[in-house]
Amino acid sequence: MQPILPGAPWLIAHKSMLGINHPYKVTLNAQDYVLWQNSSGEVFALNNICPHMQAPLSNGWICEQRNTIACPFHAVEFDGSGRLWREGQLSRAPLANPLELIIDGDLIWTYGGFEPRLPVPELHRQVASEYEFLGVTAQRSIQSDFLSSLMINYDHDHQNGTHREFFKVKSCQSKFVTKEGIYAKVSQTAEKDDYTAEEITANPMLGAIPEVMQNFLEYVFPSTQFFCLVSPDVQTYQGHILYPETETTTKTFIVLYAKFSDRALKSVMQESLLNMASIVVQQDVECLESLYPRQNAKIHLPNEEIMFYAEDLYQHWNSMLTL
Known about the structure:
Elements: E1 10-14, H1 15-18, E2 24-28, E3 31-37, E4 43-47, E5 61-63, E6 68-70, E7 77-78, E8 83-86, E9 89-94, E10 102-104, E11 107-110, H2 123-130, E12 132-142, H3 146-153, H4 164-167, E13 169-180, E14 183-192, H5 197-202, E15 212-220, E16 224-230, E17 234-244, E18 250-260, H6 264-288, H7 305-315
Antiparallel strand pairs: 1-11, 2-3, 3-4, 5-6, 6-7, 7-8, 8-9, 10-11, 12-18, 13-14, 14-15, 15-16, 16-17, 17-18
Helix pairs in contact: 3-7
GO molecular function: 2 iron, 2 sulfur cluster binding; metal ion binding; monooxygenase activity; oxidoreductase activity, acting on paired donors, with incorporation or reduction of molecular oxygen
Domain Rieske: 10-110
Organism: Roseofilum reptotaenium AO1-A
């Protein structure tokens, strides 16, 4: 396949997703890789194809003493640089191809082997320094092309349909606060109906959402959308992450951060927040996977300027300034 947005930095995982000494498979631009994290928190990545007889290394295991990954077919071992371990020593040159990673705090980025055209966004570092990490949720491979998956994150009208029952939104207005190249900040005012006592019991976070929500969103094209919900009890920073697996599939997950007005609220709301974010993604996925092939729109809605901004960045990627 033709690589999608070559030179973009892709956030492919949070360290918590890898565990310790467990192979973790990632597909980026139709190439499979295997990642693993050792007990010291170091992360390594190789092309997932064993250079012996092409078995998937991600089906193998990690040899903790040598910090190597063993092929599931013949137990051939490679270190994080791709060098072969045999008879007590490493080969001079790598035989398995390593993937260059950028580790920024607990986040794992890569350019997928391409020359960098954009820096790794500082916004993630800022959020992680100011908010408490609650967890990762909504890991999904969406049966949808990257552009369609991207645009739903910039779509400020679909809550009226896709999320109608869950969020009970009656009206929504959005506008740019800042738009500087690949970075944008958007303010959103949404009015909703009340939740029932039963709905709040099932999902306690719903009780913290005010009737009129003054939210804002921060975007760093192409991988990141942060949704910030502000309420008297909690302020969340919900990072929606995307990267292209293949021409027709897109990987998504959410990295969730929050501040609580009272520390005791964390135990009440943490699982509810993660669950709520997962439901939103599930509803978006169901929408995306049901779409017919793209055609020119014959109808336009009030908040679509933000969506067209993202589409324009995508379509003009090759003409954008590089680092």
